[in-house]
Amino acid sequence: MNPNKALWEKGDFTRIAQGMRESGDELVARIGVNKGQKVLDLGCGDGTTALPAARLGADVLGIDIAANLVAAGNRRAEAEGLTNCRFEEGDASNLEGVSDDSFDLTLSVFGAMFAPKPFDVAKEMVRVTRTGGRIVMGNWIPNDPTLVAQILKISSAYSPPPPEGFVSPMTWGGESDVTERFTAAGIPADDISFERDTYRFEYAIRPAEVVGEFRSYYGPTMNAFDAADSNGRTDELEAELVALFEAQNESTEDGTTSIPATFLRVTVAV
Ligand SMILES: C[S@@+](CC[C@H](N)C(=O)[O-])C[C@H]1O[C@@H](n2cnc3c(N)ncnc32)[C@H](O)[C@@H]1O
Rounded to whole angstroms, how far apart are CA atoms 108 and 266? Predict the structure, then answer.
């Protein structure tokens, strides 16, 4: 089994994505999606950004490596009667079967960044986007003080070192790496732009309970707990994560969680 696929099928990202829907809606509104546009959402999960794009009238294809999330996305689209939104299994590093120049907008929000072979990912995104179209990526930023980079920092201290040659997904949050990857795919550096943006993780449960959701359903955190378990360090990891989530929680309502996280928004004019 492809380890990248196994990682994301291990848990159920839907449980985490439920707290990210509002930010997904807002991001899609902000980047501008129009009726009739052909949109590819890569690493789409269960459709946090694909569904709002389809609600605006775009013709949306979501591609994701995890079969369970593709099925969940198709169920969500069907439940809303969105016949202009479909989900398929595929790998952002190799979009075989997807024609050249077939999308006006290729979107990937915390999705394609997790695919191996980042240079192939950039090349594929450029290949399938038509000239005059756009690529928009949302990528977590390495060493950022906000939630997601900090979860990774804590988790990696409990995990075995990555295999030789592993390229961290977080490198997609660095402007020079992103520029190198898209210029290698034939895009002039001037056509690549960057902005800092914010997503919010919002749940009607306490921060410690949100950690429980990550521990049970978010593949990368599940792996960190598996590693901590095997070293007798489970409680230590749990305590560090709960302290992080509590410190970053901005909700003023008891028993709820609202945590902002900064990401790098990349826009490529193709
Ligand atoms: C953090 S989740 C984000 C999902 C979705 N974009 C969202 O905003 O809710 C990362 C997603 O990337 C997908 N993914 C990871 N590697 C991939 C690859 N090689 N090709 C396509 N999708 C991939 C995972 O299955 C997962 O759905």
Answer: 10
The region, left, alpha or beta by phi > 0 then psi within -120 to 50, assigned to residue 215 is alpha
Atom of ligand 1 nearest to the CA of 69: 27
Task: Decide: 45 in ligand 1 pocket, CB within 6 A.
Answer: yes
The verdict on the CB of residue 103 being under 6 Å from ligand 1 is no
- Phi/psi at 85 (nearest 5 deg)? -140, 115
**How many other β-carbons are positioned within 10 Å of the β-carbon of residue 14?**
18
By most ligand atoms within 8 Å of CB, the mutation choice from 63, 64, 136 for ligand 1 is 64
Reading the chain (270 residues) residue by residue, the pLDDT tens digits are: 798 999 999 999 999 999 999 999 999 999 999 999 999 999 999 999 999 999 999 999 999 999 999 999 999 999 999 999 999 999 999 999 999 999 999 999 999 999 999 999 999 999 999 999 999 999 999 999 999 999 999 999 999 898 888 899 999 999 999 999 999 999 999 999 999 999 999 999 999 999 999 999 999 999 999 999 999 999 999 999 999 999 999 999 999 999 999 999 999 999
Atom 10 (ligand 1): residue with closest C-alpha? 111
pTM greater than the 0.85 cutoff: yes
